[in-house]
Automatic annotation (TrEMBL):
Function: Condenses 4-methyl-5-(beta-hydroxyethyl)thiazole monophosphate (THZ-P) and 2-methyl-4-amino-5-hydroxymethyl pyrimidine pyrophosphate (HMP-PP) to form thiamine monophosphate (TMP).
Enzyme category, top tier: transferase
Protein family according to the UniProt entry: Belongs to the thiamine-phosphate synthase family.
Domain ThiD2, residue spans: 7-125
EC number(s) reported in the record: 2.5.1.3
UniProt entry tagged with the keyword Membrane: no
Region annotated Unknown, chain positions: 1-119
Gene for this chain: thiE
Cofactor note: Binds 1 Mg(2+) ion per subunit.
Record-listed Mg(2+) binding positions: D200, D219
Source species of the chain: Chroococcidiopsis cubana SAG 39.79
Residue ranges, annotated region (Thiamine-phosphate synthase): 120-343
Protein name (database record): Thiamine-phosphate synthase
Length: 343
């Protein structure tokens, strides 16, 4: 039994170290994060300290039938998030195997790997949440969908134009249909590295593992939404005046919507807030915020000149004949008002 146990430990220690190195490379070169890079490196070094010579000598690569096994999903990744999650799963599974089999080899090793596995769970949660919020901070154009024929084509065309933030909004369709649409939109967004949020419905966001939710003033309190979704998901809140703005920030919203700036059928019966509220928010808000409501290619520069640096649109893209070109136009105008960074 002992040679087989040693081979199992050797193979899974290698697997865990390889997976962590893949995650570490992104933390180092993709995120430029010394914090996450150091944690990955420390975990790898701890793994190496348990990867002793007797375990390595038990290796029998030519006689291992597993070297010929593969799966189509291993040969492709739909996006960076999928790549990172796949390797976190690889590490966590390997650590669990080591934890169990090391009880037959060295009980102290089993206890150490149990704690190590929990550290990886925490690292995964923090890293994926960090990536979401970093992506939010870098997103300036926000597409809020409305039920329309060819919705997936429109969204993909906008994503091809550089869109990085999508909200699925549909208040009337049956839940089963909404669930399937949300699943497909999430997959599409993640394929392009974009954030996918769900309007109002926390249950739907949880069901499809969306990146977060957008809540109206009459929806779930942010504190409860945070308990349900966890600390790493994104929560946005609609606001129409300075009081709602301040309350949303105090409650912990990750971003706020500001509007409706102009009259829009999406918010039928709601008076537009105009550009004055935009000017107020521009002077008083440090978290990401998006001007929304009736914004299109004809008036977007008025909104930007009032102080907005991010906008959310619905009909301007959903009903566009060429969603990719319209998306690129909006992004070009938004790029004009972004603060310049010193090289």
């Amino acid at each position: 039994m002992q040679p087989a146990v040693c081979r199992i430990l050797d193979a899974n220690l290698d697997r865990a170290r390889e997976g962590l190195r893949i995650v570490e490379e992104w933390c180092r070169f993709g995120l430029n994060s010394s914090q996450f890079s150091d944690e990955c490196k420390q975990l790898r070094q701890e793994l190496a300290s348990w990867h002793t010579l007797d375990l390595r000598l038990a290796r029998d690569t030519p006689g291992d039938p597993g070297t010929e096994l593969t799966h189509p999903q291993e040969e492709q990744r739909s996006g960076l998030g999928t790549l990172l999650q796949a390797n976190f799963c690889r590490v966590e599974e390997a650590l669990r195997v080591v934890e169990e089999y090391s009880k037959l080899y060295n009980p102290k090793m089993g206890a150490a790997f149990k704690q190590m596995r929990y550290r990886v769970y925490i690292l995964e949660s923090h890293l994926l949440g960090y990536q979401r919020h970093q992506r939010l901070a870098q997103s300036y154009l926000y597409l809020v969908t409305s039920p329309t024929e060819g919705l997936f084509h429109v969204v993909e065309a906008a994503l091809q134009g550089g869109l990085s933030l999508v909200q699925y909004r549909d208040k009337d369709t049956a839940d089963l249909d909404r669930l399937e649409t949300a699943r497909q939109l999430r997959q599409l967004c993640h394929q392009y590295g974009a954030i996918f949020l769900v309007n109002d419905r926390i249950d739907l966001a949880l069901a499809v593992d969306a990146d977060g939710v957008h809540l109206g003033q009459q929806d779930m309190p942010i504190a409860i939404a945070r308990q349900l979704l966890g600390p790493q998901k994104i929560i946005g809140r609609s606001t129409t005046n300075p009081e709602e703005m301040q309350r949303a920030i105090q409650e912990g919203a990750d971003y706020i919507g500001v509007g409706p700036v102009y009259e829009t059928p999406t918010k039928a019966g709601k008076a537009p807030v105009g550009l004055e509220y935009i000017r107020h928010v521009a002077k008083n808000v440090s978290i990401p915020w998006f001007a929304i409501g009736g914004i299109d290619v004809n008036n977007v520069n008025e909104v930007l000149n009032a102080g907005a640096q991010r906008v959310a649109v619905v009909r301007a893209i959903v009903r566009a004949e060429q969603p990719t070109l319209v998306t690129q136009y909006f992004l070009a105008q938004l790029a004009r008002v972004q603060p310049r960074t010193t090289p």
